[in-house]
């Protein structure tokens, strides 16, 4: 029986250290982490690896439910997949576990709250952008990745891992850009 920790933050600029320290202090022998949005499961390779690794009696430990996901259906599907492998999920804050029946009810409610919170964040963001546009100060979203750089590095024969390190992004973003239609020359696009 292993305690496997999972830490996640949404952006490259955010720090995983607080989550990792908490998971270690809870006795997690293995901790996998990633910097990617929790809006969906797409591209969350570390989470997928953990779920594939889980065995009977293992425990997936996360610091807060929103680290697992911000969509109720995704969270419940992850919990279901863990249980299909004979494992269970434990959230540290607030302390909830799927070992007992009440844990499932609480997880469902917390999942709904996380999803609602994400909607509120998006709504506040839209309101802020609208206000900035009305005041004439909105400059648009920050360009995050230079697609042409990634394509150039790929053409030079660099591996997706090497490209990701150079461009300071995830391998999944590199794959998405390489598999997407090529933009107009010199155009920057968000990944």
From TrEMBL:
Claim: Acetylation is one of the keywords in the record: no
Top-level lineage group: Bacteria
Keyword Lipoprotein: no
Pfam families: HTH_7, Resolvase
Signal peptide limits: none
Keyword entries, A-Z: DNA integration, DNA recombination, DNA-binding
A GO molecular-function descriptor: DNA strand exchange activity
One BP term from GO: DNA integration
Protein family according to the UniProt entry: Belongs to the site-specific recombinase resolvase family.
Classification via PANTHER family: DNA-INVERTASE FROM LAMBDOID PROPHAGE, RESOLVASE HOMOLOG YNEB
Protein name listed in UniProt: Recombinase family protein
């Amino acid at each position: 029986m292993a305690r496997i920790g999972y830490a996640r933050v949404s952006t490259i600029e955010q720090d995983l250290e607080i989550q990792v320290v908490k998971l270690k202090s809870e006795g997690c022998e293995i901790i996998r982490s990633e910097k990617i949005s929790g809006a969906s499961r797409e591209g969350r390779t570390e989470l997928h690896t953990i779920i594939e690794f889980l065995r009977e009696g293992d425990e997936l430990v996360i610091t807060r439910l929103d680290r697992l996901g911000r969509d109720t259906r995704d969270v419940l599907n992850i919990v279901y997949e863990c249980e299909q492998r004979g494992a269970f999920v434990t959230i540290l804050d607030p302390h909830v576990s799927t070992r007992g029946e009440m844990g499932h009810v609480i997880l469902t409610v917390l999942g709904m709250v996380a999803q609602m919170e994400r909607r509120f964040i998006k709504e506040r963001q839209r309101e802020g952008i609208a206000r900035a546009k009305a005041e004439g100060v909105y400059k648009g979203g920050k360009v995050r990745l230079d697609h042409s750089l990634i394509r150039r590095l790929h053409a030079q024969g660099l591996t997706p891992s090497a490209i990701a390190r150079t461009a300071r992004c995830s391998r999944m973003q590199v794959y998405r850009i390489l598999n997407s239609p090529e933009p107009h020359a010199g155009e920057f696009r968000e990944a």
